[in-house]
Design brief:
Elements lengths: L19 E3 L2 E3 L8 E3 L9 E3 L3 H30 L20 H9 L1 H6 L3 E6 L5 H14 L4 E5 H10 L3 H10 L2 E7 L6 H16 L4 E5 L3 H5 L4 H13 E6 L4 H20 L1
Parallel strand pairs: 5-8, 5-9, 6-7, 7-8
Antiparallel strand pairs: 1-2, 3-4
The structure holds zinc ion.
Zinc ion (ZN) binds next to α1.
Amino acid sequence: MTTPSFGIKAAPLTPEPDDYIENGIIYCGKCHSPKQLLLTTPPMSGTLVPIPCACLKEQRDREDAAKAARGHRETVARLKRQAFACAPMRTWTFEHDNGNCPQMYLAHYFVEHWPEMAEKNTGYLLWGGVGTGKSFFAGCIANALLEQEVPIRMTNFAEVINDLNATFEKNEYISHLCHYPLLILDDFGMERGTEYGLEQVYNVIDTRYRIQKPLIVTTNLSLHDLKHPRDSAHARIFDRLLAMCVPIMFTGSSMRKDAAKAKLADIADNAAFTQ
Ligand SMILES: [Zn+2]
């Protein structure tokens, strides 16, 4: 093999048993593509340099893709651990949607338009009766965006208030909640609203409003309750929420009731079978 000048050395290439030589160039015996390149421009002209043949290149691409996929899976798993308080929420995904939630297309819309939603600080305010699938809807959005490696935190108001009561670093806690590109606050209601708690809730919502980051909030309150708050502490929270979030009504039969009905039907079927 020619020894190139200018300190550049062509690595010696040992042919594999199936390889063959054509016009002085080594070819791969498996994919029949060259393993060497003949340089033609001075001062290196006439030098043979090793290149990956087609099958080696394919193998390297596969290895790179597997490595990237592994890295992606690890990142998503870490983000999901941070995102949810309990593991079952990781299964609240579009794949597990039973098709009973007529609003679900809006969850898909949110995910598909995420960059726009984030840029315009547009969130959702999911309101309606207990067990109509609001949390599942929000969880589907969370999981789909987590798969895209968007850091998200899905928590609930009771937890936020408990955490804030338990820490002296309240500003730090709020700024931590606000660093997430999307924050989902589940289960906002009037019943547990102490004045201090409401003040803290307002701080979280207002901070996100000011730094222009979206929120998704679920509540069992009706839109009428939200528009006619009983006191000024609630009024300013609702004003902020309605300024940031598109209200979406959840009605229909309760998902929990449906699940209970399905369970009862199963039991009835089994009972009929064993008779
Ligand atoms: Zn090859």
